[in-house]
Amino acid sequence: MNSVAITDHGNMFGAIEFYIEAQKAGIKPIIGCEVYVAPASRHEKNTSSEDSSYHLILLAKDETGYQNLMKLVSIGYLEGFYYKPRIDKEALAQHAKGLIGLSACLKGEISVLIEEKRFNDALKAADTYNNILGKGNFYLELQANSIPEQKIVNEGLIKIAKELNLPLVATNDVHYLTKERALSHEALLCVQTQTTLNDPNRMRFQTEEFYFRSPAEMKEIFKDVPEAITNTTEIASRCNLELDFKKIHLPKYEPPSGESKEDYLKNLCEEGLKKRFSEVTPQIRDRLEYELKVIINMGFVSYFLIVWDFIHYAKSQGIPVGPGRGSAAGSLVSYLLGITDLDPLKYGLLFERFLNPERLGMPDIDIDFCYERRPEVIDYVTKKYGQENVAQIITFGTMQARAVVRDVGRVMGVEYAEVDRIAKMIPSELDTTLKSALESEPELKNLYQNDQQVGKLINIALALEGLNRHASVHAAGVVIADRPLNNYMPLFKTGDDQITSGYSMGILEKIGLLKMDFLGLRTLTVVNETIKLIKEIHGKDS
Asked: Are residues 160 and 274 in the same domain?
């Protein structure tokens, strides 16, 4: 295959990593999403069923399509969430440019209407999607998955294609890579739905056909409708998204006095020299000029001013701020601005470890704030740069070696004591994988090879290890951009209505966005309270 698409349900969490890995492998990446479409308005949330949405595949043809896809996914979470992130046809019409649509699986609107024997309604729905997306941008999707209803739906779709002169396309839902992984996927569904494999009422897929089929298999299955296979390559040839990872999207810091950013930074440093040093030696002056030259040439003036600004705000409000940590302590500019409180010259710290022309990416300054008052600093940054331009960052919990063994043991119905015994054979170090544990622990390896139940448990666990378990808010990360964030990424909303980025921290750096760590440190809170109590008890001069 020369191209491959990603269409996760309702989100784009893996889109950038997928894009990068596909390009590395010399394969064209196609970014898409299987969105949920509300039957009427996305704002209506009074239906009794959690299945109050249809599926629809959207693929980005170009950068415009990618921008629209991100906006639609954001709308799904921020405006249409009801059990699932839903868009509606109104939102789709507003953001249809640059997108190709596919009618989706048995849960697609047209497929559901065909199954309900409402052929005329199915015809109207197909015509509506075709009009919204534009002629030639909507395909009717045929699948072959051994589900009896699929055959009836396929016949209806072929009929609609003839009546409306719409193109057909052959696809296969992919939930696991190979047919042999079907059981592991069943176990994953049980983990997610808190059920067991022997529960007759558990959520399950009807067949084992949801794997990554080869082109030869697909050609054989759809030999009666060869145009549906040909159209897969036609769609791939029309999707040509090129992402630029070299641009940096720093928010614009506007100096209050109307002077240039460069002059403002230099003036702040000059003020810092008077406060920090009783005598400005040639060594200090040379180091400052060198650092400023590097910062200006690399385009990071705004970066330093942004960090200075919110630290200055925090200190002016009496919010305890840490003295600085990590490589930023090697910067004299950081010291003069009050970003750090360590003199790098006194301790022989290197600026190059923090910032140098050969280092790709933005500098990274981790800042500690009083745990209790950290939200005030985030609120300040949000108000200054705009609510749409600032968000906290998503993070993903993954299924680690010990935890995944316990999960799989539970869904298989293995006794707790036995699962606990197996899990405790795996070393507790964070970077331990099941594979490395099998190599380093003879007792575990022996059980795996000679106990059929343990072998099955570990094989399933090996297939699931490392998968994302849940999404949550990163403890410290905040992203700040020069424009509304949904121009650069999809947005996500957590269960407690916290809006976060739809891409993780590493990806935000990759796409050129400013990521800051606003660390909430309890120690600072304790130290601050201790100083207050000492002053209260012993007087201000103690």
From this structure: no
> Distances in Å between the alpha carbon of 144 and those of 122, 182, 220, 223?
20, 16, 11, 12
Cα-flanking dihedrals φ and ψ of residue 246, to 5°? -90, -20
> Are 340 and 302 within 8 A, CB to CB?
no
pLDDT digits (tens, 9 = 90+) for 286-334: 999 999 999 999 889 999 999 999 999 999 999 999 998 889 999 999 9
- For residues 137 and 254, the model is more confident at 137
CB-CB neighbours of 534 under 10 Å: 12
**Angle at 141 (CA atoms; ends 136, 121), nearest 5 degrees:** 85
The pLDDT, as a whole number, for residue 358 is 82
Amino acid at 429: E
Tell me whether residue 66 is in a domain. yes
With bands split at pLDDT 50, 70 and 90, how would you rate the model's confidence at 252?
A: confident
Write the single-letter amino acid at 386: G
> 307 Cβ partners below 8 Å, 6+ apart?
337, 339, 365, 367, 516
Per-residue pLDDT at 289: 96
Residues 332 and 231 in one domain: no
In the block, tokens 């919204």 appear at 132
The domain spanning residue 142 has which CATH number? 3.20.20.140
CA distance 333 to 365: 13
Same domain, 270 and 158: no
d(CA 325, CA 436): 34
Query: Residue 49: which domain range?
Result: 3-174+212-238
* Contact predicate 474/395, CB 8 Å: yes
Answering whether pTM is above 0.85, one says: yes
Task: List, for residues 444-455, the tens digit of each pLDDT value.
Answer: 999 999 999 999
* Joined tokens for residue 77: 């979470």
Residue 319 inside a domain? The answer is yes
One domain, residues 234 and 265: no
**What's the pLDDT tens digit per position in 379-416?**
999 999 999 999 999 999 999 999 999 999 999 999 99
Same domain, 334 and 481: yes
Residue 542: its pLDDT value, please?
A: 55
What's the whole-number mean pLDDT along residues 151-167?
Answer: 97
C-alpha to C-alpha distance for 135 and 239, rounded to whole angstroms: 16
Residue pair 187/411 in contact by the 8 Å Cβ criterion: yes
Rounded distance, CA 393 to CA 372, Å? 19
Give yes or no: residues 362 and 478 share one domain. Answer: yes
**Is 74 a domain residue?**
yes
Q: Which of 369, 335, 370, 368 is nearest to 354 (CA)?
A: 335
pLDDT value of position 15: 97
Based on the fold, state whether residues 73 and 164 are members of the same structural domain. yes
Query: Do 128 and 68 share a domain, yes or no?
Result: yes
Give yes or no for residue 46 having a pLDDT over 80. no
Q: Quick check: is 358 in a domain?
A: yes
> Residue 89 belongs to what H/E stretch?
helix 89-94
Spell out where 240-382 has E strands. Answer: 366-370
